[in-house]
Structure formats: structure tokens, C-alpha cells
Amino acid sequence: MQEKESEALRNQRRRRKRIGRIKSAIVLTITGWMILSMVLIILLFARTASLERKLDRLLDAESRNAVPAMETETAFDVQAKTEAASDVQEDVVPAGTPVALDADNLAEEGDVHKVYLTFDEGPSENTAAILDILAEYDVKATFFVVGSEDEEAQALYQRIVDEGHTLGMRSYSNKYSVIYQSEEAFEEDYMKLRDYLHEVTGTEPRYYRFPGGSSNQISNVPMSSLIDFLNQRGTVYYDWNVSAGDAASMAYTPEEIVANVTEDVVKYKTSVVLLHDSSDKSATVEAVGPLIEALQEMDAEILPIDEDTQVIQFVKADSVR
Predict the structure, then answer these.
(1) What number of other Cβ atoms are within 10 A of residue 90's Cβ?
(2) Which residues does residue 271 pair with via DSSP β-bridges, in sequence order?
(3) Are 134 and 166 in contact (CB under 8 A)?
(4) pLDDT tens sequence across 266-281
(5) Could you give the CA distance from residue 270 to residue 241 in angstroms, rounded to a whole number?
(6) pTM of the predicted protein model
């Protein structure tokens, strides 16, 4: 009897041990899967974050022509990086694209080509370099500037005016998501830049360039309402019919930028040329001198925008009532 009871106890203990081992195996298996899942989730998040950073860099490079930061950053560098991080839109018009085409502006044999070099998104240290080159050739241009309150920018606004160039407006913030959010946002940005430039330079800018152009598809409000706002204030906006191609990428060399411009300038009586003088446009700076020489060889007149300039617009101001 005792032997049977002892055997039963032994069997019971063995069953308990087997059950214990099974429970341990189940717990270990579940724990292992949980740990593995957590590791996979962490790796997935890390991979996603890495891809997002790469995508951000690609978008910034595409729209801002981004370059590696130098060891010493100026106020202009910091501003450009801030703008690039917050807004990746750009005036992306491939060189050679026929934009703002007016039949009566097509050049015929014997016509004198009037060329208006316009620089967007300054001021920066590149603006200063371009002004030096323009002074060397005694050529005047137009600068559609953004808002910047540091002393270097204020000095450049004043220099543009003092040296006989045309000071135009591009927007204060240069952030598409801000200025095109609503009519009120656009008007606030416009008034802020206009008043600020008047305060700094003593002159009131009369010309404007819509970021992305007057026919852009970015604005959350109809562009006609923004055009009407400018019309009511007597502000003339200019688009472009020649693009240097320096907006979207670093693919173009200075020589190619010159070719992009001159190949289109010959088509028109009046050419409004889109160029950029933001801090990452070193190729544009290198192209300015050769471009002026090429235009002078064509006997083109290089002029700043003024009240006598033929207006080049994607959406005609007088079509908005």
C-alpha cells in the first residue's frame, strides 16, 4: 500500500515538474517574442526616422540647392537653414521652359533685347558679391528680397537702393505655408515687408514677386484675390519669362546657367530673368560676370525694373476685377 502511495506521489511530482517545465518554456517563448518584437519595433522606428531625415535632406537639396555647412556660420547661413527646414517649396521652372509668353513680345530680326536680371530670396553674402560684380560692370538689376532684421541685411537693402538697383519684395517670411494660408496672412506678410523696407531704406517698394509665381498651385486662397490686393495698392508684380535654372538643384554649372539664360533671351524683346542670390547660390554668383559679358556681346540692354518696363506676368493683373 505504501509503495503504491509512494509511486503515486512520485508520479505526481514528475507531472508537476513536466507542467513546470512546460510553463517555463511557454513563459520563455512569450518573453522571447516580446523582446524580439520590441527590438524589431525599435529598429523599425530607427529606420523610419533615418529615411525621414534622408527624405528631408533630399527635399531641401531639391528646393533650396542645399550645401554642407561651413565651420563658421553667419547670420545669413542660420536664416537660410531655418527657412529651408520650414519650407521646401521653390520657384521650380526648368531652364528653357517658355513661361509668360506674349506673342507681341517675340523678338524679330533687328529688335534690341531688353534684359532685366532679377534676383530672388536675398539678401545674403551672395547679394553683396553680386552687387560688387554689377558695380564692376556698371549694370543695374532688380532684387526681390525677403525679410531679415540683422545689420548685414539692413546694410544690403540700403546698398541696393543707394547703388541704383530696384528693390522689390518677395515676402517677409518666404514661407509658402504661412503667406498662402489665407488672405489675411498674405496681407499681413506683405505689409510687414513693405513697412520694414520703407523704415530701413526710406523708400517704398513698388514691385512684388509672388513666391512660386502668380499662377502657383500652392496657395490655399485664390491667387486672384491676392492679385486684387496688390492691384488696389498700386503694386506691380513681376513673374519671369526666362529662368536661369538655379532654383531647384546644383546640377548647373556657371557656364550652363549663362547658356540657359542667353538661349532664351534671344527669343524675346523683353526678358525678365529669374535668378537667385540666397546663401547657397555660389554658382549663380560665378555666372553673373560671364552672363553680363554674353548679353553685352548680344548688344542687349541690361536694365533694372522701373515704370517703363514691360510687365511680364503669368496671370495678367488686368484680368482680375
Answers:
(1) 20
(2) 115
(3) no
(4) 999 999 999 999 999 9
(5) 9
(6) 0.72
